[in-house]
Every structure is written in C-alpha cells, then in structure tokens.
Amino acid sequence: MSVLGWRVAVGSDDAGFEYKTRILSDLDEDSRVGLVVDLGVRANEHTAYPHVASAAGRLIQTNQADRALLICGTGLGMAIAANKLQRVRAVTAHDSYSVERSVLSNNAQVLCIGQRVIGLEVARRLVREWLGYQFDPDSPSAAKIAAIEDDLA
Ligand SMILES: O=C[C@H](O)[C@H](O)COP(=O)(O)O
C-alpha cells in the first residue's frame, strides 16, 4: 500500500460489469483506497476476460497498482489468465476465510470474483474485508511465496 492508500485496478468482462460498477463506487468512497484504475469493460463493450486480466496483471507487474479486483462470470477465467504473468498471484475466492488467506498466506495481489456465483452484497463485503489485509513479509508464509517465485525464475 502506498502512503496514499491502496492503488486498485478493477476490471471485468461483460458478465461482471454490474458488480464492477457497484464496487467501483464503493472503492471511491473507501478511505483506504488512494487510486482506482477502471480497466473496463464499459457498458456495451465486450472485451473478453483474458485481455482485461492481462492488463491488470501488467499494472501489478510494473508496480502501477498494488491490487487488482477482477470480475467475470465465475472468477475462474480471470484468475487463470492473470496467473500467466510472472510474479502475479491471482485467486478466485468467494468466502471470507479464503479472501483472508489469499493475502495473509499467499500474498495474492489479485482477487477474482464471479458475478454468477455470489450475491452482490457478499461480493461487496468480501472486497471490503480484502482491503483490510496486508501480507506480512516476516511471516512464515513468506518463504513459501519465495519458493513459488524461485520456481518461475
Ligand atoms: O471464466 C470465465 C468467465 O466466467 C466468463 O465471464 C464467461 O466465459 P464464457 O463466456 O466462456 O463462459
């Protein structure tokens, strides 16, 4: 997190557009968030999820964003596509505990959610919770993340 707060990239395909729109306004009102980058899609735009996920992953790789939130029908394709990029750790999570561990255990920068899987209010709550977690680089989990990165080097 920068001194100004989280820099969050947000993207969806057309299957995630409704939730993206609602959650973008939540992020705008969240004092923990310093910058929001909307990667689309916009209304009546039909960019397929791999392209949106790649754009988000590149922002993470180049340290232009701390976190990315990606929403498609299931949250699955977005995670698969984002994880193709080195040093990007993306997860699909639809419950509170998994969202917590995605950050505290896995240091995942990218959370993927499925609009067709969970209700809007649950999605909004999970995003609120997600922003409250920060990976501890001194925790025992850090060596496991390093092992993932070493395998990719
Ligand atoms: O993981 C993929 C997403 O759920 C996407 O929104 C829908 O993909 P499909 O149109 O290929 O089913």
From TrEMBL:
Keywords from the named record: Isomerase
Coiled coil (residue ranges): none
Keyword Isomerase: yes
Gene Ontology BP terms: carbohydrate catabolic process; carbohydrate utilization; cellular response to carbohydrate stimulus
Pathway: Carbohydrate metabolism; D-threitol degradation; Carbohydrate metabolism; erythritol degradation
Annotated catalysed reactions: D-erythrulose 4-phosphate = D-erythrose 4-phosphate
Gene3D superfamilies to which the protein is assigned, alphabetical: Sugar-phosphate isomerase, RpiB/LacA/LacB
An MF annotation (GO) of this entry: intramolecular oxidoreductase activity, interconverting aldoses and ketoses
Origin superkingdom: Bacteria
Assigned protein family: Belongs to the LacAB/RpiB family.
Name of the protein: D-erythrulose 4-phosphate isomerase
Originating species: Pseudolysinimonas yzui
